[in-house]
């Protein structure tokens, strides 16, 4: 299938690359199909691109790249929604709020995007009772200067 994207123009996508969000995304409940597309070739940043709405794309990263101690527990409801059988099937992303200059970019650690990579199911999970916020500096050492 071909889809129009926010950052990459028209791209070819295989059906098995499409992630299903059974409950949509917070604020975009009608959006239920997305693809994770590499944003840059180094594999650090990705785009969570809506399959149906070209202008809807979010910049993502693997939170463990920038926050090695990042840790949370999924509530049973999220585990059930994602049909998770094994932790090995889980991929986690965080949504970034891009800034200019780039070193002021922040990551939303309070609401990670959790993916069952095996079954292609995904959910943006809002963590309750956690120390994480919606805006953590991606490059805290650069902000401190």
- In the CATH hierarchy, what is the superfamily? BH3618-like
Oligomer: single chain
The CATH architecture is: Roll
From the N-terminal CA to the C-terminal CA, the straight-line distance is: 46 Å
Round the Cα radius of gyration to an integer and report it.
15 Å
Approximate strand percentage = 35-45%
Amount of helix = 10-25%
What do the pLDDT scores average to? 94
- The general outline is globular
Structural class: mainly beta
Number of domains: 1
CATH fold field value? BH3618-like
What count of helical segments does DSSP give? 3
Q: Segments where pLDDT lies below 50 for 5+ residues?
A: none
Number of strand elements: 10
CATH class: Mainly Beta
Give the SSE string. EEEEEEHHEEEEH
Main sheet, how many strands, which sense, barrel?
8 strands, antiparallel
What does this entry look like structurally?
It is a single chain. By secondary structure, the protein is mostly beta strands. It has a single domain (2-144), classed as BH3618-like (Roll). It is built from 3 helices and 10 strands. The chain has helices spanning 63-66, 76-81, 140-144, and strands spanning 2-5, 9-12, 18-20, 33-38, 45-50, 57-61, 90-97, 106-116, 121-124, 136-137. Strands 3, 4, 5, 6, 7, 8, 9 and 10 form an 8-stranded antiparallel beta sheet that branches. A hairpin with a 3-residue loop joins strand 1 (2-5) and strand 2. The termini are far apart. The relative contact order is 0.17. The mean pLDDT is 94.
């Amino acid at each position: 299938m071909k889809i129009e994207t926010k950052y990459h123009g028209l791209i070819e996508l295989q059906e098995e690359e499409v992630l299903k969000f059974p409950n949509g995304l917070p604020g975009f409940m009608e959006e239920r199909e997305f693809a994770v597309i590499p944003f840059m070739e180094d594999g650090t940043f990705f785009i969570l691109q809506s399959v149906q709405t070209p202008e809807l794309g979010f910049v993502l990263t693997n939170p463990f790249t920038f926050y090695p101690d990042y840790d949370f527990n999924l509530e049973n409801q999220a585990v059930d929604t994602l049909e998770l059988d094994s932790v090995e099937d889980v991929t986690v992303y965080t949504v970034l709020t891009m800034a200019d200059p780039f070193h002021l970019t922040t990551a939303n650690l309070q609401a990670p995007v959790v993916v069952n990579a095996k079954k292609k199911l995904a959910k943006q999970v809002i963590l309750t009772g956690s120390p994480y916020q919606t805006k953590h500096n991606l490059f805290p050492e650069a902000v401190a200067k």
